[in-house]
Amino acid sequence: MDDVVEFCSDLIKYESVTPNDNGIIEYIKIFLDNVGFQTKILEFANDNYCIKNLFAKYVQDKGKSLGFLGHSDVVPAGEGWNTSPFVPVIKNDYLIGRGVADMKGGIAAFCCAVSEFIKLGFKGEIRFFITGDEEIGSYQGTRSLLKWASQNKELPIDCLIGEPSSKKEIGDRIYIGHRGSINVNVCAIGKQGHVAYPENYNNALMRICSFISEMKNYSWKYNDKRYPKTNLEPTLLYVGNYAENIVPGRCSANINVRFGADYTLEKLEQIFFNKAKQYDLHLDFRRSGEAYCCDNIELINLLSNSICKITNIKPEISTAGGTSDGRYMINYCNVIEFGLQDITIHQPNEKIKINDLQILKDIYFQFLKDYFNA
Ligand SMILES: [Zn+2]
User: Fold this and answer.
1) Is 370 among the residues known to form the active site?
2) CA of 74 to the centre of ligand 1 (A)
3) 87 φ, ψ to 5°?
4) Are 339 and 361 contacting, i.e. CB atoms less than 8 angstroms apart?
5) What would the pLDDT profile of 110-146 be if each residue is shown by its tens digit?
6) Domains of the chain
7) Which string of DSSP letters, residue by residue, matches 38-75?
8) Most distant CA pair in the chain: distance in Å?
C-alpha cells in the first residue's frame, strides 16, 4: 500500500494521544516489515507508563547511512473541532485530523517514499526511529531509544526529522537546529501588610516585577547570527491575593528564555542567579535544551536541492521555531529537519493540503535518490 493519503488517514485513526500507543507502532512496524525492513519494538518504562518505540533498519551493502526520526504520539484533541479528531476527513482538498501535520503526515510520506525507493536498488543503510512520547518530554522515547541505538551500534551518520517545518508553502523552510530553551521559576518572599502602611510591609510582587523588567531589558549579546536573537518572556505571574488593601508577602513567576549559541544553559543560570541576588529572589531552573545547529553544509545543500527539484523553491535555512528531538539526536549524528506546514499543529481542526502530502513524499523520495546517489 503506497498511497500516502491512505496511509496517513490510517495513522490518524489510531488515537495515539501521548503517552498512549493504541496500536499505531505495531501498524507502522507491519508496513516496514512488508517493505523488507528488520524491525524491533522497544519498550521503555518509568513508574507511570511504558512507551512503545519502533526501530527499523534496511542495510544493503556498505554505504551512506541515513536515519529518519519521527513521533507517532499526538497532543490531546481539545475543544473546537468541526469534525471528529480521530476520523480522517477530506474536505476542500484538505486532510483533517489530530496529528496530521504533527507528525503523522511526515511519517506516512517518508514510509511511502522509502517503500518506493528501495525498489530502485541502492547501496547504504536506512534506519527508522519512531517514538511514542515526544509531546511529553521524550524520556522513554527518543532519549532512551538513542541510548539503546548507541549501545547497539545502530546510529546513523545523518538524520532527517520529519517534523513540520514549512511556513507559507511546502518546501520553503528547513530547520538545521533550534535555539536553546530554559524555564525559570522565580519566587519572592516579602512581608504582607496593609497597603496604607509602606513602612510595615515588603512587597513581594513589586520585587518580581522589577526583576522581570530588568531581565527583559537585559542587553543579551548577539554574535552568532545563525540563530534568532535571544528572547525572554514571562509566562505566568502568581500572587494569590484578591484583597485590594493587602500588599502581598509572596509572589512567583515563570519565565522562558530562548537563546542562541552565544549562551549555554549554565551561563544563563549564572546571569539569572547574579541578578536575583540583588532582589533577594529564589530561583528554580528547568532546563529544556541547549541551542544546537547542524554544521554539515553538504547535507544541508543536498536536502535544499532535492526540495528545489520538486517545488522550484529554495528553502530558507532556519533555526527559529520551537525546539525538537533534534536536540538529543545532534549528540550522535548530523540532524536536519523538514516536513509539512506547521500552521495548525496542536490546534483544533489540524489539517494539511492533500497535495502537500504527495509533494512531501516526492521530496523525500528525491532526497533519498540524491543522498544515496541512486
Ligand atoms: Zn511533533
Assistant:
1) no
2) 8
3) -115, 110
4) no
5) 999 999 999 999 999 999 999 999 999 999 999 999 9
6) 4-178+291-372 (3.40.630.10), 180-289 (3.30.70.360)
7) EEEEEEEE-SS-EEEEEEEEEEESS-EEEEEEEE--B-
8) 82
